[in-house]
Amino acid sequence: MQAVDVEAGSPGSILRELFECALRAANPMHCVPDFLPDIPARGRVVVIGAGKASAAMAKAVEAEARQRGWLERVEGLVVTRYQHGVDCEKIEIVEASHPVPDIAGEIAARRILELVTELTAEDTLICLVSGGGSALLALPADGVSAEEKTALNRALLRSGAPIDRMNCVRKHISAIKGGRLAAAAYPARVVCLMISDVPFDDPSVIASGPTVPDPTTVHDALGILEHYKIDIPASVREMLEGEGGETPKPGDPIFAHVENIIVSKPSEMLAAVERHAVDIGLRVVSLGADLEGEARELGREHAQLARQLRNERQDDQPIVILSGGETTVTVRGDGRGGRNAEYALGLAVELDGATGIHGLACDTDGIDGVEDNAGVFVDPDTLKRARKSQVSASGSLLRNDAYGFFAAIGSLVMTGPTKTNVNDFRAILIL
User: Fold this and answer.
1) For position 287, what pLDDT does the model report?
2) Per-residue DSSP letters for 345-403?
3) What percent of the chain lies above the pLDDT cut of 70?
4) Which long-range contacts (CB under 8 A, 24 or more apart) does 7-11 make?
5) Cβ distance 421 to 130 under 8 Å?
6) Per-residue pLDDT tens for 344-379?
7) What's this model's pTM, rounded to 2 decimal places?
8) How does pLDDT run across 220-265, given as a tens digit for each residue?
9) To 10 degrees, the CA torsion angle through 320, 321, 324, 326?
10) From the CB of residue 395, how many other CB atoms can be counted at a distance below 10 Å?
11) Do residues 326 and 197 make contact, with C-beta atoms less than 8 angstroms apart?
12) Nearest-CA neighbor of 341 among 319, 371, 321, 380?
């Protein structure tokens, strides 16, 4: 890529350029092919998957399979979020709801389970898993109704619980997650390719680990629900307190022919952006790709760091603070907005118009929460424009209405679905 003259570019264009670099680094067409297995001459080749990147991953599989000469043997089914589908030749792509499951996701999950149950020891199952797969593989365990599972999922999303705790609960009330897909596919060879969207890249957390041994227990799941004061439907409590809710554990022989491979990580995305930032003349301060915590509070912390770096700087070289991870939002109001907008609003409030500091916070899947924006921009005039538009920053935070705040001042970042997902990307530019 040709180097960009930082002085000639606007802060917003520089930040957007860094975000686009992040998306290129996580493009499934680049990161999937090298990890595909060698395919035996005999047996079926079945491809299944779930997640916001899974359809694009399926297209990458087909392209590589064509090059290797086994595309005609491919069959399968992948479920992705509405508007995240792509055209595939041999693999059926269906769309369903995320983050709250719907009947389309349940039907797709049931079809996937039926498909893998037919496999033999001669067959190869290629699983394509990415963030969002947990909601899209929406098949409740026997005895748990879809309505109760959906209500529980809504409560988890509003609770402020981190993704690993939410997925612990999801695994134990599912017929397909928490290693149960691998159990259904046994004795077939299973190769699961994952794009990680979770802090620390735990395979058992990515999409609730459908092909991964589950180290958590039903008692863990119950403890999480009680900790976050979530009402537990009677059928769910019966499942978790009975014997049928436990998931397959490490050491179970059903995993003897299973290989789980992470093909793209948030840390790799951030490293690619860091290299590009250096190439265009920025000094990089990287906070890592695994940050968690309440979104608005992290935004405030990063504002304080940005001020400190600006005040202590000994030269004129622009600085960029990079970070990734997955924050949480404890929903108390009735507003709109995802975790990136809430982070950015906390950032803007704490900066309070500080000169020379600009920020971008976006989800790499192009969807911040359930909204139509990937994220937002922040600049020194953010609060000034809000006052002119008669929008209160503090009031918007109180209502969890960060989307409404940034929409009113024209600071939303719109990309549409990116067809990948390596979690959040944040950059603060100090000029």
Assistant:
1) 98
2) HHHHHHHTT-TTEEEEEEETTS-STTSS-SEEEE-TTHHHHHHHTT--HHHHHHTT-HH
3) 98
4) 11/358, 11/379, 11/429, 11/431
5) yes
6) 999 999 999 999 999 999 999 999 989 999 999 999
7) 0.92
8) 999 999 999 999 988 888 888 876 679 999 999 999 999 999 999 9
9) -130
10) 13
11) yes
12) 371
Cβ-contact 424, 324 below 8 angstroms = yes
pLDDT for 2: 33
Q: What is the mean pLDDT of residues 209-224?
A: 95
Q: What is the mean pLDDT of the chain?
A: 94
- How far apart CA 277 and CA 3 sit, in angstroms, is 9
DSSP annotation string for 171-239: HHTBSSTTTHHHHHHTTSEEEEEEE--SGGG-TTTGGG-TTS-----HHHHHHHHHHTT----HHHHHH
At residue 226's C-alpha, the angle toward residues 222 and 229, to 5°, is 145
Element (H, E) at 430: strand 424-430
Rounded to an integer, what distance in angstroms lies between the CA atom of residue 53 and that of residue 85? 9
DSSP bridge pairs for 376: 361, 412
Domains in the chain, CATH or no CATH each:
6-25+282-430 (3.40.1480.10), 28-264 (3.40.50.10180)
Give the model confidence (pLDDT) of 91-149 as tens digits.
999 999 998 899 999 999 999 999 999 999 999 999 999 999 999 998 999 888 888 88
What are residue 57's phi and psi, to 5 degrees? Answer: -65, -40
Which among 371, 384, 356 is positioned nearest to 414, based on CA atoms?
A: 371
- Mapping DSSP to helix (H, G, I), strand (E, B) and coil, where does residue 67 land? helix
Sign of the C-alpha dihedral, residues 129, 131, 137, 140? positive
Residue 157: what pLDDT?
Answer: 87
Q: Model confidence at 6, in pLDDT bands (50, 70, 90)?
A: very low
Q: Given the structure tokens 């929903």, which residue do they identify? A: 331
**What is the length of the chain?**
431
Sheet of 412-413: strands edge to edge? 283-286, 319-325, 424-430, 357-363, 375-378, 412-413
Backbone angles phi, psi at 274, to 5 degrees: -60, -45
Tokens of 197: 């969207």
DSSP string, 235-294: HHHHHHHSSTTPPP-TT-GGGTTEEEEEEE-HHHHHHHHHHHHHHTTPEEEE--S-B-SB
Q: Could you tell me if 362 and 425 are in contact, meaning their C-beta atoms sit under 8 angstroms apart?
A: yes
